[in-house]
């Protein structure tokens, strides 16, 4: 018995020595003001972000590694913590297998390298959606990777619930070398309703950015084919540059256009566009102040109504988007500390 206990202790010691755990996070507090297309203004001070991130990894030997990550949003005082992105992955000499529950940002601005603190997702581009996913990433050459993923429907999380809505397959390639990064992806949706543009059939994505030294510029394009033959085209152009005196500037312009011939109330045909500007001052590598300002046109769907088809599931819209008919604007000043 004593020898068994000693052996178990030795195994535990080896495991502890090969495992690594880290805790990081971000705290942000600021002032935010927005003015709706109808001219109503809302503003105030408060917490923007209060997030903790945990990451753990273990060397399994023979070129293999296991890792897991989770994040918590601690929220406003008394609100209680809520779960955020979660993942577990296994890295082998041939590929990395990842299991994810996550809320990705819109693809086109991310691929363009947009670096503003606030984004145009949910304003001009697709709103964020929570998803469960299984992905395999293979390194093909230096700087070149291929990813194949199965992604379950938007905002339907947990075991045993992945057949409610449109799931999809995602195939993407990414090439990063020196100052340039290029990306492309193709998405095939399941459970497509061919008589309705309220579902998505396929999505094609192209994007890239390049660091020119004095500035980084990039662009992203996403073309979604809808169920009955309509299209949803989203684009983004971005620019960021360092400035003298610990300052840096960022800008992103985006557009989102939906064409449909089915005249469905649940398909918000029309165009919206907008821009986001940012000015950042770095007090250190981990503490910085940000000023953001934005304006966008076209009606923004309210909570519980429509999100654009390329973001996933139909939410049951009640109103259409007008063609650049109304303006919404915002500005915010935020102090951020990363740890």
Strand-residue fraction?
over 45%
Shape-level CATH architecture: Beta Barrel
- Helical proportion, percent range: under 10%
Q: Determine the structural class based on helices, strands and strand pairing.
A: mainly beta
CATH topology: Porin
Reading off the top of the CATH hierarchy, the class is best stated as Mainly Beta
Whole-number mean pLDDT: 86
The secondary-structure element order is HEEEEEHEEEEEEEEEEE
Q: Supply the number of helical segments.
A: 2
Shape: globular
Gap from first CA to last CA: 45 Å
- Output the radius of gyration: 22 Å
Q: How many separate domains make up the residues?
A: 1
Query: Could you tell me the number of beta strands?
Result: 16
Low-confidence stretches: 1-14, 300-323
Strand order of the largest sheet: 1-2-3-4-5-6-7-8-9-10-11-12-13-14-15-16
CATH superfamily: Porin
Biggest sheet overview: 16 strands, antiparallel, barrel
């Amino acid at each position: 018995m004593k020898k068994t206990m000693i052996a178990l202790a030795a195994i535990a010691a080896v495991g502890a020595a090969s495992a690594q755990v880290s805790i990081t996070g971000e705290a942000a507090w600021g002032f935010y003001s927005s003015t709706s297309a109808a001219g109503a203004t809302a503003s105030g001070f408060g917490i923007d972000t209060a997030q903790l991130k945990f990451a753990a990894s273990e060397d399994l030997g023979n070129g293999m590694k296991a890792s897991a990550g989770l994040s918590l949003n601690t929220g406003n005082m008394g609100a209680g913590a809520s779960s955020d992105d979660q993942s577990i992955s296994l890295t082998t000499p041939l590929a990395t297998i990842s299991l994810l529950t996550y809320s990705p940002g819109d693809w086109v601005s991310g691929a363009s390298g947009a670096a503003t603190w606030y984004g145009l997702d949910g304003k001009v581009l697709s709103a964020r959606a929570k998803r469960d996913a299984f992905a395999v990433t293979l390194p093909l050459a230096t700087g070149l990777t291929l990813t194949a993923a199965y992604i379950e429907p938007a905002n339907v999380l947990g075991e045993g619930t992945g057949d409610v809505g449109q799931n999809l397959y995602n195939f993407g390639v990414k090439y990063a070398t020196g100052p340039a990064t290029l990306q492309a992806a193709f998405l095939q949706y399941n459970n497509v309703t061919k008589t309705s543009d309220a579902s998505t059939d396929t999505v094609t994505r192209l994007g890239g950015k390049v660091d020119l030294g004095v500035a980084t510029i990039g662009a992203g394009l996403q073309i979604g084919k809808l169920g009955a033959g309509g299209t949803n085209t989203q684009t983004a152009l971005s620019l960021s540059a360092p400035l003298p005196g610990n300052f840096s500037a960022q800008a992103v312009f985006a557009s989102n256009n939906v064409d449909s011939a089915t005249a469905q109330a649940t398909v918000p045909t029309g165009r919206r566009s907008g821009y986001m500007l940012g000015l950042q001052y770095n007090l250190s590598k981990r503490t910085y102040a940000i000023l953001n300002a934005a304006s966008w046109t076209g009606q923004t769907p309210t909570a519980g109504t429509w999100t654009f088809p390329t973001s996933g599931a139909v939410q049951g819209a009640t109103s259409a988007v007008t063609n650049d008919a109304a303006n919404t604007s915002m500005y915010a000043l935020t102090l951020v500390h990363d740890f």
